[in-house]
Amino acid sequence: MSLPLVFLVERINMLQMVVSIVMFFVLFFGIGFILNMILKTTWLPLVIYLGIAAFLFFRLTSYHFADISIMVAGLAGTITGGWTIQTLRAKGYKMF
């Protein structure tokens, strides 16, 4: 008993979406963390991300659930990176 090809394609696409969400969260957390550490700012990566997201919002013509969920994951990663830097600075870590 084999599964229909359509079911397998949908399952692969769902797996790709889940992996993309995690990957974008980690990617933007890392980029935000490094930018915060180098530039000694807390929320600059968030402002940059929101600016790029606003630019893309007005340039793209159609959005899908996958697009929005991946962008929200990147936004969450950027916010988490800023929060982490802020917490480390509050606890007394001087290099951050």
TrEMBL record:
<keyword id="KW-0472">Membrane</keyword>
<keyword id="KW-1133">Transmembrane helix</keyword>
<feature type="transmembrane region" description="Helical">
    <location>
        <begin position="68"/>
        <end position="85"/>
    </location>
</feature>
<keyword id="KW-0812">Transmembrane</keyword>
<dbReference type="Pfam" id="PF14068">
    <property type="entry name" value="YuiB"/>
</dbReference>
<protein>
    <submittedName>
        <fullName>Putative membrane protein</fullName>
    </submittedName>
</protein>
<dbReference type="InterPro" id="IPR025917">
    <property type="entry name" value="YuiB"/>
</dbReference>
<feature type="transmembrane region" description="Helical">
    <location>
        <begin position="12"/>
        <end position="35"/>
    </location>
</feature>
<feature type="transmembrane region" description="Helical">
    <location>
        <begin position="42"/>
        <end position="62"/>
    </location>
</feature>
